[in-house]
Structure formats: structure tokens, C-alpha cells
Amino acid sequence: HELEKDLLKIKDSPAVTLDGRTIELSGNIETADEVQEVIDHGAKGIGLFRTEYFFITRGTLPGEEEQYRYYQNVIRKMAPDPVLFRTLDVGGDKLAAWVEDNVEANPFMGWRGIRFTLSRKDILRTQLRAMYRAAAHGRARIMFPMVSIVDEVRQALAICAEVREDLKRERYQFGEKVEIGIMIETPSAVAMADALAREVDFFSIGSNDLIQYALAVDRGNSRISYLYNPLHPAILRLIDDTVRAAHKNNIWVGICGEMVADARVRGALLLIGLGLDEFSANAYMIPEIKKIIRSITYDETRALVKKALKKSTASEVVTLLDAFIEEKRPELMEFIPRGPV
Ligand code: PEP
Ligand code: MG
Fold first, then answer.
1. What spacing in Å lies between the alpha carbon of 234 and ligand 2's midpoint?
2. For residue 51, how far is its CA from the centre of ligand 1 (angstroms)?
3. Closest-lying ligand 1 atom to the alpha carbon of residue 93
């Protein structure tokens, strides 16, 4: 409690490194009730609104008006800061009662995220209409989860354009300048990041799934959880490739997976040095991330990343990071996680 109280003192300070690099710091939410908590912890926006919770906590599909009112409420509360809506991400571990025939042999490799919504365009259209209409009341961004091929993004963008045309024709007020992005959660999306970056306005790395698919480790299976490591050089290389492709194409790139919550200061130092423009995390993590950003220079984190990318194992990366923290920033030692990561 003491530590938390102390961290909250910088709640209204900017998330800027000692050498002046500003990182957009936003919060992850699953329901509208969590917005106040995000604001209270000093985030400047919502970086991941997991909209599926509105859909899976009930027996029937919500309609456009109901979704519009729900989204509008979040946008108004957060304005003028942005709210990043993720389109419905059901499948895998998130099953909705109203989806018929959802039993699959490999649900994480199956009918989830954008694959589901592109095959149920009625559901996607209704959700996009509600989001675009809500966007008229503040600042909204929209992103699609679980992208594995470029064709999916093109189809989704075409539906967004149709929805905007329909709303205009029907004389609705809607957000005309909504940025559209995708989550980077699959190794194929990383491999194709340069092509994907030419299609969209931003990337947000879903490290929870990216780690799962890159290391072929079920994120919920405790038997093999030793493989689930955000600091593995394989993961750092994938993030590095993603950031480079994004920046080469002049789009911004954030991360909304639980990487910092899991690896704490070790993860934060690496992600800053990898060049991420935005971090989105659960509200309780925001003050700690801000404190870390404000305690270091971008230059020294870049030097750390350069070395980390050459390591062969996650434990070598940990040794490198802990030596740096102990020697150069001992005040951050309290943020080193106890335990395996
Ligand atoms: C992720 O995969 O990192 C992510 C943010 O999405 P979710 O955890 O909801 O699958
Ligand atoms: Mg995910």
C-alpha cells in the first residue's frame, strides 16, 4: 500500500524518459465500469477495450442501439483521450453461449477473432456501426484481433468503408477520423508486418497470444508454463521486427498484452528500448510503468535491447537486465518480479 501510494504521486506527470521520449500510456478494460480506475491510475486513454465481455456475459447478442449507448458512455468518460475498441474477439478461451456449434478440437487455432467476425459479417457490421456512431462523441480507434493474413485486413477495411457509407447515407453522426489498426498476435503477422503496415494506421502487439503461438505453448497449460516467457529472445526479435516494419511505414505501434505485468521492470525496459510508441496495461500496473519510464533514458534501454537481441536464452536476458538495474538503477530493484519470469 505504501509503494502504491508513493507511485500515485506521479499520476498526473507525463510518461516521458529522462532524455525526452514520450510514450503513450493507456489502460486495458473489459467493461465500462473499469474506466474510472484507469483514469485514477494516470493513464491517458484506453489502449484495449476487450468488447467481447459485453457479448459473452449474456445469453443473446446485443443490438446496435444497446452497443452504441455502452460504447458512447466509455468514449465520453475518457474524452479527450482516445478509446481503442477491439472488435469482438470470441473463440479460443472466450466462448459465447449464443455461438452455435463452437466445439472445436483446437480452439486456439480455430474460429476466433477476425476469423469469426468475417464469417459472421452481420455481427461485425452491427458492432462497427455502434463504434463509429459512438466515435462522434470523442476520440475512437478500432482494431481487429487475431489477424494471420493480409486478405483478412483488406476484407475488414472494406466493411469499415461500407459501414461509413451507410451511416452517411442514413444521416447518422459518426466519427469520420477513426484510426483503424490490427493486433499483431501471430508469427505470420510479424513475418508480413511490412505488408500489413501499408494497410492500416497502427499496430498493437498482443503479446499474450504472440508468445503462445511463437513458442507453441498453450497460454493456459501449467505443465509447460516454463516455456511461456515474454523475455525469450525469440519474442524480443519478433517485437523488434514488428516495430521496425511499423516505423518504416510511418505508423505507430503499441503493446496491449500482459508482458509488462508479467515481467515488470525487465519487460518495461526492453519494450521502451524496442521503440514501442504506446503501452496499454491493466490499471494497477500504470503507475509502476510510468515510474520506470521516468527513471531511465531511451538511449540506455536501446543499448540494453541491442545486447538482449543477441542472447540465446531468456535467463541470459534476465541476467543482463538485472545486472543493469542493480548497477545503474538500484531504485528500480523493487520492481523485479520474484519467481520464474
Ligand atoms: C493478447 O493476446 O496479448 C491480448 C491482449 O489479447 P487477449 O489477451 O484478450 O487474447
Ligand atoms: Mg489475444
1. 18
2. 12
3. 10
Report how far residue 118's alpha carbon sits from residue 156's, in angstroms, rounded to the nearest whole number.
7
Nearest to 238 by CA among 301, 309, 313: 309
Q: How far apart are CA 264 and CA 309, in angstroms?
A: 18
Distance from C-alpha of 299 to C-alpha of 173, rounded to nearest angstrom: 45
Per-residue pLDDT tens over the stretch 50-61: 999 999 888 889
Give the integer Cα–Cα distance in Å for 312 and 139: 42
- The beta-strand segments (E) located in 46-135 are 46-50, 82-86
Question: How open is the CA angle 293-298-299, to the nearest 5 degrees?
Answer: 150
* Residues 225-259: tens digit of each pLDDT: 999 999 999 999 999 999 999 999 999 999 999 99
CA–CA separation, 295 vs 299, rounded Å?
Answer: 12
Half-sphere exposure of 103 (CA within 13 A, CB side): 0
